Amino acid sequence: MSTNLKLKGNWNELKGKLKAKYGELTDDDLVYTEGQEDQLLGKLQKKTGETKENLEKILFSE
C-alpha cells in the first residue's frame, strides 16, 4: 500500500495519536492534503522537534 493511501485511509486516527503525543499540535498543523506528505512532515518536524524518520515511523508504520 502506498504511503499516500495509508495516510488517506487512517488520517483521523493518526491525527488523534499525534495530538495525544504532541499536545502542542493544532488542527491547523494537521491539515493533510493528498500528495503533500513532505510539506506535512516538514511542518510536524518544525512544530515537534522530532526527526523526519521518527515522524515517518509514527505515520507510516501502523
From TrEMBL:
InterPro entries, sorted: CsbD, UPF0337_stress_rsp, YjbJ_sf
Family: Belongs to the UPF0337 (CsbD) family.
Annotated CsbD-like domain residues: 6-57
One Pfam assignment: CsbD
Listed name of the protein: CsbD family protein
Transmembrane spans: none
PANTHER family on file: UPF0337 PROTEIN YJBJ
